[in-house]
């Protein structure tokens, strides 16, 4: 649980654009994140799926989620949501409103898994709107067209030379998880790329 009395966000919840513009870019600070390592096809893998209420994708670059819809209108996300981004053959990035650590504690007690809280390592930036893809295309090294990067795809790469995880979470929304130390640099680049769409 984040202690908001002492926690500091790398971007202090910055926002540019808006829902009435072609693009909205906003930091969503203090989003929980966990690196999970578990071997597919094992009892531990099955136990993890049961505990978090979903079936982890074994395809790298795919996202599965439970009770976790995109939120861009300022309302609160549903309680108990979990999203699992497949980053490697035995590696997932788990995020959401659920208490992931508590859900997986019993699994860790009885099975061989690795669960590391990396919440303070990254922040979360949402890029939303009809021009979201255009803004990201200024810097992203991969093809973001639907045929190549459909909804619930994720990838690791460089965005304006900053290492990030990128998730295409809905039709007009992309979520970026940059390292906190690169957040200000990335924000400057994204804000600059967004100017023509505001």
Describe the protein in words.
The chain is of the alpha+beta class. The protein folds into two domains: 11-29 and 123-198, Probable tRNA modification gtpase trme, domain 1 (Gyrase A, domain 2), CATH 3.30.1360.120; 32-119, 2-Layer Sandwich (Alpha-Beta Plaits), CATH 3.30.70. The protein has four helices and eleven strands. The strands form two sheets. Strands 1-2-8-11-10-9 form a six-stranded antiparallel β-sheet. Strands 4-5-6-3-7 form a five-stranded antiparallel β-sheet, covered by helices on one side. The model has no long low-confidence stretch (mean pLDDT 92).
Could you give the topology of this structure?
Elements (H helix, E strand, L loop, with lengths): L14 E3 L6 E4 L5 E5 L5 H10 L10 E4 L15 E7 L2 E5 L4 H11 L3 E4 L7 E4 L3 H6 L15 E7 L2 E9 L2 E6 L4 H12 L4
Antiparallel strand pairs: 1-2, 2-8, 3-6, 3-7, 4-5, 5-6, 8-11, 9-10, 10-11
Helix pairs in contact: 1-2
Question: What tags apply to this protein structure?
Answer:
4 helices; Alpha-Beta Plaits; Gyrase A, domain 2; 198 residues; 11 strands; six-stranded antiparallel β-sheet; single chain; alpha+beta; five-stranded antiparallel β-sheet
């Amino acid at each position: 649980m984040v202690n908001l009395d002492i926690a500091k966000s790398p971007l202090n919840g910055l926002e540019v654009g808006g829902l009435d513009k072609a693009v909205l870019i906003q930091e969503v600070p203090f989003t929980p994140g966990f690196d999970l390592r578990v071997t597919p096809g094992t009892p531990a893998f099955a136990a993890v799926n049961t505990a978090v209420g979903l079936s982890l994708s074994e395809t790298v670059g795919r996202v599965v989620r439970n009770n976790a819809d995109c939120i861009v209108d300022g309302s609160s996300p549903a309680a108990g949501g979990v999203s699992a981004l497949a980053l490697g053959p035995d590696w997932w990035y788990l995020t959401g409103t659920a208490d992931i650590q508590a859900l997986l504690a019993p699994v860790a007690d009885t099975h061989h898994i690795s669960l590391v809280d990396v919440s303070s390592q990254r922040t979360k930036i949402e890029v939303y709107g009809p021009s979201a893809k255009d803004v990201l295309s200024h810097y992203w090294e991969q093809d973001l067209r639907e045929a190549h990067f459909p909804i619930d795809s994720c990838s690791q790469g460089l965005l304006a030379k900053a290492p990030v995880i990128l998730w295409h979470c809905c039709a007009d929304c992309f979520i970026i998880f940059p390292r906190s130390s690169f957040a200000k640099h990335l924000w400057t680049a994204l804000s600059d790329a967004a100017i023509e769409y505001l």
